[in-house]
Amino acid sequence: MRGPHNIWRLIRTGATFERTGAMKVALEMLDLPPSIRITARILGWPFKWLGLKGDVTQPPMLRAITALGPAYIKFGQLMSTRPDVVGTEMALELKVLQDSLPAFSMELAKAEILKELGQTTDELFTEFSEPVAAASIAQVHHARLRETGQEVAVKVLRPNIERAFRKDVDAFYFAAQTIEFLSPASRRLRPTAVIEHFDSIVKGELDLRIEASAASEFQANTEKDEGFHVPKILWDQSARSVMVLEWAEGIPLGDIEKLQATGYDLSTLGTRIIHMFLRHALRDGFFHADMHQGNLKFALNGDLIALDFGIMGRIDEYTRRAYAEILMGFIRKDYRRVAEVHFEAGYVPADQDVDEFAQALRAVGEPIFGHGASQVSMARLLAHLFDVTERFGMETRTELILLQRTMVVVEGVARTFDPDLNMWSAAKPEVESYIKDNLGPRAMLRDLTKTAMVLSRFGPRLPDIIENLLTQNAKDRAPKPVLKRIQLLKFLTGATLFTAFGYLLSQL
Predict the structure, then answer these.
(1) In this predicted model, what pLDDT tens digit does every residue of 438-463 receive, in sequence order?
(2) Quick one: which of 347, 448, 429 has its CA closest to 389?
(3) CA 282, CA 24: separation in Å to the nearest integer?
(4) Strands 125-134, 251-252: pairing kind
């Protein structure tokens, strides 16, 4: 329920941060003005006693986040990949949230497997280990199939996790709606739509059948990508709350010391991660949207192994092209073209001035180039970009939220291996390759062929479709002269020729 009762949950959040000491840490981390810090502390202090106590053995921020539950843990996981925003010390502290959370009991895991698969772990496996990794939503066991002897990973959802997430998401909905009501200026950011988008993602993550399907599609798309591996799903042993996939041995990307011991150039590894993400996003329009260190491994054969497919992103072909042009525009410092793409895609209202927008984008982009991460404050950069978007009336594009968020995560992961990595330089080869294949004469011919093929499928229905459109137009508007027969004939002839042209192209 998304009613006022959620006020309690929001108060509890602030109270928990105050009680655990995380409020002071968070305010300092965000580098907020003293007036805001003082106000937050004054408002939080009276409700301190209402906050959750958490694990007193943990540092303040970790203590508060784990006490508040899975939705907050997800946010903490994101922040653990952004040392340039939260600081190196805090990022290391939050890294525990990626795959080192307390596990639930073996008895509960075995009971869930029996319920979902109709067989006990002894009937299914010759070996079934204690949890090897535990995250906010599920935990993973190492096992060996009795029937084939194959090593597998068994993922089991936490008990009652869906109910816990539902409570937090409902509170987020209420917060978003309250913000929109109290601050009309915030509506352009569509906070409620943003929460709806993430809500749909969470629902998918809580059904392992959806994750299994996503993993299978991702594996098929990337099967021929050299140096990248996605474990195969074992469908016969997978269900709503249990998923079984082949075991992939490798070094977690969070274990820097072991990675260094392999002798592999870690700066090259960081660049590879960026390349893989952009290749999947631009080429396939389907990408891993939770690429933090806990979901990536490095195999001894040099492969990069992807795990955990609960959050995947999907963007259509037009958006991919617009996104690629925006990236390339920034890379080439062609801010005018970046501005034009924003207008063409409808990201910026048509009544704004394209030259002024280009000038504003230059102020965002120029400080990036020629500097490493240590010299660029990403927090300040994002704040500047927000100011620009607000000035020009840009609305939040929910279809791009995952793409933008994942880019932030991927950049953060890559910079753990190379603090001076330049995102734009690293992205250039993949963006150039995509643009070469998808923009220009060849792409135009391919698009024309696709359009003609669609028309050819509807060829027999074209007269009826056109007649219905004309009839509907006559009903919706005041009476106007009816099209002459010769005009209609010309229209039908043109459609027929266009269809024939498409068919001939498809035969080449």
Answers:
(1) 876 776 777 677 777 777 777 677 77
(2) 347
(3) 41
(4) unpaired
Asked whether 22 and 64 are in contact (CB, 8 A), the reply is yes
Is 99 noted as a catalytic residue in this protein? no
Contact (CB, 8 A) for 244 and 146: no
- 314-372 residue pLDDT tens: 888 888 888 888 888 887 889 999 889 888 888 888 889 999 999 988 888 787 666 65
Q: Which residue has the tokens 């005018």?
A: 336
Q: How far apart are CA 178 and CA 174, in angstroms?
A: 6
Phi, psi for residue 46 in degrees, rounded to 5: -60, -25
Closest by CA to 95, choosing from 257, 259, 293, is 293
Question: At 343, which amino acid appears?
Answer: F
Q: Which residue has the tokens 């700066």?
A: 267
Residue appearing with tokens 């002024």: 356
CA dihedral 16, 19, 22, 23 (to 10 degrees): 90
Q: What is the DSSP string of 221-262?
A: HHTT-TTEE-PPB-GGG--SSEEEEE----EETT-HHHHHHT
Cβ atoms of residues 225 and 276 within 8 Å: yes
- In angstroms, the CA 301 to CA 250 distance is 9
- Cα angle at 182 between 181 and 185, to 5 degrees? 85
**If you search the block for the tokens 């106007």, which residue do you land on?**
480
d(CA 107, CA 120) in angstroms, rounded, equals 11
Over the stretch 404-417, which tens digit does the pLDDT of each residue have? 778 878 888 888 88
Quote the DSSP letter at residue 479.
-
Q: Which of 290, 353, 464, 476 is catalytic?
A: 290
Q: What angle do CA 173, 184, 35 make, to 5 degrees?
A: 85
Q: Could you tell me the sign of the dihedral formed by the alpha carbons of 204, 209, 210, 212, in that order?
A: positive
What dihedral angle (degrees, nearest 10) is formed by the CA atoms of 42, 43, 49, 54? Answer: -100
Classify burial at 208, counting beta carbons within 10 Å of its beta carbon; exposed 0-12, middle 13-18, buried 19 or more: buried
Hey, where are the domains in the chain?
Answer: 6-98, 162-203, 251-439, 442-506
- Decide: 335 and 358 in contact? Cβ < 8 Å: yes
Nearest-10 Cα torsion for 334, 335, 341, 346: 180
Distance separating alpha carbons of residues 438 and 285, to the nearest angstrom: 13
Count of CB atoms situated within 10 Å of the CB of 39:
12
Q: What is the pTM of this model?
A: 0.72
